[in-house]
Amino acid sequence: MGRNLKATYLIETSYNPEDAAQIMAGEQSSGTFLRIPGETDELKARHAAKVTRVEPVGEVARPTLKGSRQMEGRPIQRALVELNWPYENVGSNLSNLCATVAGNLFELGPFSGLKLLDVDIPEEFTKQYKGPQFGIDGTRSLSSVFGRPIIGTIIKPSVGLSPVDTAANVKTFIEAGLDFIKDDELMGDSPHSPFEERVDKVMIEINRFADRTGKKPMFAFNISGDVDDMLRRHDYVLEQGGTCIMLSLNWVGIAGAVKVRKHAQLPIHGHRNGWGMFTRSEVLGMAFMAYQKIWRMAGVDHLHTNGIRNKFCESDESVIEAVKACLTPMHNGYQVMPVLSSGQWAGQAVDTYQAVGSTDLMYVCGGGIVAHPGGIAAGVKSIQQAWEAALQGKTLEAYAADHHELKQALSFYG
Amino acid sequence: MGRNLKATYLIETSYNPEDAAQIMAGEQSSGTFLRIPGETDELKARHAAKVTRVEPVGEVARPTLKGSRQMEGRPIQRALVELNWPYENVGSNLSNLCATVAGNLFELGPFSGLKLLDVDIPEEFTKQYKGPQFGIDGTRSLSSVFGRPIIGTIIKPSVGLSPVDTAANVKTFIEAGLDFIKDDELMGDSPHSPFEERVDKVMIEINRFADRTGKKPMFAFNISGDVDDMLRRHDYVLEQGGTCIMLSLNWVGIAGAVKVRKHAQLPIHGHRNGWGMFTRSEVLGMAFMAYQKIWRMAGVDHLHTNGIRNKFCESDESVIEAVKACLTPMHNGYQVMPVLSSGQWAGQAVDTYQAVGSTDLMYVCGGGIVAHPGGIAAGVKSIQQAWEAALQGKTLEAYAADHHELKQALSFYG
After folding, report:
1. How far is A391 from chain B (nearest CA, A)?
2. What interhelical angle do A254-263 and A94-102 show, nearest 10?
3. pLDDT greater at residue A292 or residue A32
4. pLDDT at B2
5. Nearest CB to B159: which of A36, A89, A229?
6. Measured distance CA(A59)–CA(A273) in Å, rounded
7. Which of these three, B102, B128, B154, is where a domain ends?
8. Cα Rg, chain B, nearest whole Å
9. Percentage, residues of chain A above pLDDT 70
10. ipTM value > 0.90
11. Mean predicted lDDT score pLDDT of chain A
């Protein structure tokens, strides 16, 4: 990571890929659709984006996305393209960085596909954006969990529980030994569960438990909303002794999240709901590698990555890659804790650990805990046992031999 | 528009479309991947999202997006689905509204395609979100343009001009008669064109022109960035007599834009760069109909729609639909002015007017002005003449007979 801004794309085009890459570079720096008077050679030398790599990676029979301009008689090629911008074009501004690497590119005429795969954010940005305030280490300290994943759940049903019912669930969860609980992303500040009342009721249980045991489970309260409301809600959570706030990143947006980060004294749990829209097309949108860098720069402490064998369409390979991306240092730090959730239960623990090689993750199970035939406490135990097996290098089946709750889980969910 | 939240989707699935729609509704309200204890019938009756329409619209031979679960032997159907949520689930919170209608849906296993087409935002939201402060009428008043489109341009080259060079261009543009000028979305507050210095230099020219002529051309300064910086920059523009600020909506995000709106005393020019990512797949992401409603609710006064015969991949039909969507009242108001740009020159004026039937739009030309063979002043004249032709019900060719600049434009760009 140097002073320049660099981005990598997968493109699909019937143009010569070199020419197509030059069009991208022109459009995203000095150009327009016609050569214009002020675009001097000197200005271009200083500010034009440079194409630093074009590597064809295959052909397709038909254009994947509609509407592109097709060059008669030419193959439709896919290629990796790397563009490079001088830092001076952008300045240390995340919105402008995104407008540059992910702006008016996706619709350009020559492309029947264009996906941002990766971005190298200039080191200069670290002066403006300090990144995650707590990261992995701070989250472990706050929740008193070391040497194993932070095991958590989501309040379900997502919508409809009163603050009192939510708190009753929380009591059950934390007495069962859970480290972490989160609001569902659908639950914010709604008439049937006003934010402050939910915090009050939930924190009574958590504080009571912490006083008794010395361990304070972490609850991520979804403060997503308008800026002033988010700051006020953050303060409210802090005052009641809470230790985490949650944001729906794609809907709060970068500026809102950065503002919360600057104000916050609590870790930010970054929920990526809506993410499928950005990434499910293999030739459109943004890959997680780029996405997680932008959000780490914005200062998010935890980031959802999905888990293996999830209920979504994402492959295990892609999930593992996402978790590893989060665990790779950026600018010598910018720690973010990957959050594995969606269809998770005891069954994925060993394979996850083997694939990822780290316990620096949050392992969040909804139905994987609450639907356990032995009840919630047994559900929690089954997950804990599964991770014990993983850390001891045992198979789930072997470990289940003398761990009843894990055994029940394997036969019920397996 | 009543009290409920409603959203329409295009889905693609090998499941029975009815079943698939029920999965969407469950996932986005009370459910998880398994039936769980707290999901009582009473809670479901109050909070479950309802499927209010399922209309098959065709079949495809292969799943469009990868990774979905396929039902053996069943056709892959596309269908329109309408879901309906009680207002009580969400509360008046745009982030939560988006998490509900556009959250963890796009990745759900049964779907090889899922696109949000439209959303009906509950009237209750109008108490919290006042919408565009200036809209069409306020923008016309500020820029003194009535009875015809506001004609504008973008500073080009997008990147690289110093504040002094930018101001020199502005001087040329406004003396040539342009109503509106905007920063390129790539230009924010960069080392080679610091924001305040650019405002200073540009506003000297604009104020001088306004003092002399009584008409103040509108310049949309791109204030996109972190919240405090945006508010400070807004104030700076206002202090210098500027009349418009611009946001890169997708990167500033909803919370940031709403915060700017609450603070602002100037219209917000909403730039949608990156939009292609959301919409270019026919079966993924979000349609403009939904997008423009969300941003009008957030309070954006102008919104980019693309123009016909643009340099992007969007069809003319889609562009016209987008312009009309902006011009359709929402909650009895929430006026937003559509901004037609990209590859625009004199040539599209008559067809645009015939298709849209309104002059309530901004017509923004880059190369269509500055690359005109007669120079910038002639470029501006050619656009004005083209719109005169449109309003007089004449063809461009007929009007060009005694309008030299238009004639030049037709032979150069045509």
Report:
1. 27
2. 150
3. A292
4. 62
5. A89
6. 32
7. B128
8. 24
9. 98
10. yes
11. 95
The DSSP bridge partners found for residue B303 are B270, B338
CA distance B218 to B139: 9
The domain of B106 spans 5-128
Query: How are the residues of chain B apportioned to helix, strand and coil, as percentages rounded to the nearest 5?
Result: 40, 20, 40
Beta strand spans in B200-346 (E): 218-222, 244-248, 268-271, 284-286, 302-304, 337-340
Residues B149 and B121 in one domain: no
Per the CB < 8 A criterion, the answer to whether B386 and B406 are in contact is: yes
Q: Would strands A5-13 and A76-85 be described as parallel, antiparallel, or unpaired?
A: antiparallel
CA B405 to CA B395: how far, in whole Å? 15
More confidently predicted of A30 and A384: A384
| Neighbouring residues of B46: CB distance < 8 A, sequence distance ≥ 6 | A160, A192, B86, B88
Residue A187 shares a structural domain with residue A45: no
Kindly provide the b/e burial profile for residues A284-307, where b requires at least 16 CB atoms within 10 angstroms of the residue's own CB.
bbbbbbbbbbbbbbbbbbbbbbbb
CATH number for the domain that contains residue B335: 3.20.20.110
Cα–Cα distance between A61 and B15 in angstroms, integer? 28
A208 and A300 together in one domain: yes
C-beta neighbour count of B16 within 10 angstroms: 15
Chain A environment of B190 (Cβ under 8 Å): 88-91, 93, 96
Residue B1's nearest CA partner among B333, B331, B297 is B331
Give how far Cα B269 sits from Cα of B142, B147, B300, B397, Å: 13, 20, 7, 33
Q: CB under 8 Å to B254, separation ≥6 — which residues? A: A251, A252, A253, A256, B94, B95, B98, B294, B298
Using the 3D structure, point to which of B128, B162, B187 is the last residue of a domain: B128
* Sheet bearing A50-60, strands edge to edge: A50-60, A76-85, A5-13, A111-120, A284-286
Find, in chain A, the residue whose alpha carbon is nearest to that of B67.
A313
Q: What is the C-alpha radius of gyration for chain A, rounded to an integer number of angstroms?
A: 24
B279 and B398 in a single domain? The answer is yes
Least confident of A107-116, A120-129, A196-205, B366-375: B366-375
Backbone conformation region of residue B317, classed left if phi is above 0, alpha if psi is from -120 to 50, else beta: alpha
- For A86-158, list the strands marked E by DSSP: 111-120, 150-154
Strand ranges (E), B17-167: 50-60, 76-85, 111-120, 150-154
The reply to whether B227 and B147 lie within a common domain is yes
Residue ranges with strand state E in A90-225: 111-120, 150-154, 180-182, 218-222
Residue of B107, B114, B223 for testing the chain A interface, max A β-carbons within 10 Å: B107
A30 and A114, same domain (yes or no): yes
Whether A93 and A164 map to the same domain: the answer is: no
* Residue keyed to tokens 């973008």: B154
Calculate mean pLDDT across residues A332-359. Answer: 96
* Beta-strand relationship, B244-248 and B218-222: parallel
Amino acid at B181: I
Tens of pLDDT along B3-54? 899 999 999 999 999 999 999 999 898 765 566 667 788 888 888 999 999 9
**Cα–Cα distance, B316 to B312 (Å, whole number):** 10
CATH number at residue A68: 3.30.70.150
Distance from CA of A353 to the nearest CA of B (A): 23
Residue pair B350/B390 in contact (Cβ under 8 Å)? The answer is: yes
Would you call B274 and A89 a contact, using CB atoms and an 8 Å cutoff?
no
Is the domain of A358 the same as that of A244? yes
Q: Which amino acid is at A256?
A: G
Domains: count for chain A = 2
Mutate to test the interface with A, among B15, B154, B273 (most CBs of A within 10 A): B273
SS3 B214: coil
Contacts of B334 (CB under 8 A, 6+ apart): B131, B132, B135, B296, B297
What span, in angstroms and rounded, lies between the C-alpha atoms of B33 and A341? Answer: 12
